[in-house]
């Protein structure tokens, strides 16, 4: 897996170097994990186990690092990849709340989409699932070119409340 770079960001293949207390704090922050499967109560040991499984599983996962401050602000991944059908699932975590709203998620996502649709992987389609109420994320994905493909009604339960999941996809314009 390659290191990717944008004008403001370096996307660095995930490693145990990113297993930090700061990362754990993101996973335990209700505002950060509000719409994520991660539901808090993470420890450094659990994070290390998770990152080790990602590394050993050859998951495409990058740490999002700002070029100016060299600060780890989030992660982006493509997993699983179905090579037979040219499909992959996208996910992103922007952990540093002070960096929200600065366009970093879009910049990192576009770089990864380009990588996946380029000759590196030549994927046909990238999919994702997003909580319908997460309007900021839905808008980001639409701005990246994802379109809605379906709705899973009352599909997940967070803090005792059911949420709909919107399934979205973006297609590689140069592949059938």
Automatic annotation (TrEMBL):
Signal peptide: none annotated. It comes from the Bacteria. InterPro entries: Acyl_CoA_acyltransferase, GNAT_dom. Gene3D superfamilies: 3.40.630.30. Pfam families: Acetyltransf_3 (PF13302). Residues 9-164 form the N-acetyltransferase domain. PROSITE patterns: GNAT (PS51186). This is GNAT family N-acetyltransferase. It comes from Sphingobacterium bovistauri.
């Amino acid at each position: 897996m390659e290191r990717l770079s944008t004008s403001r960001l370096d996307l660095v293949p995930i490693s145990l170097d990113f297993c930090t207390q700061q990362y754990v704090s993101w996973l335990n922050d209700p505002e950060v994990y509000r719409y994520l499967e991660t539901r808090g109560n993470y420890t450094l040991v659990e994070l290390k186990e998770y990152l080790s499984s990602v590394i050993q599983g050859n998951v495409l996962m990058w740490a999002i690092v700002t070029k100016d401050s060299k600060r780890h602000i989030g992660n982006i991944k493509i997993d699983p990849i179905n090579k037979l059908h040219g499909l992959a699932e996208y996910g992103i975590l922007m952990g540093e709340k002070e960096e929200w709203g600065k366009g970093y998620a879009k910049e990192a996502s576009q770089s990864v989409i380009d990588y996946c649709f380029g000759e590196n992987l030549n994927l046909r389609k990238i999919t994702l699932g997003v909580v319908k109420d997460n309007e900021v994320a839905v808008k980001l994905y639409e701005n990246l070119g994802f379109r809605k493909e379906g709705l899973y009604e009352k599909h997940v339960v967070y803090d005792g409340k059911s949420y709909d999941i919107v399934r979205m996809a973006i297609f590689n314009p140069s592949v059938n």
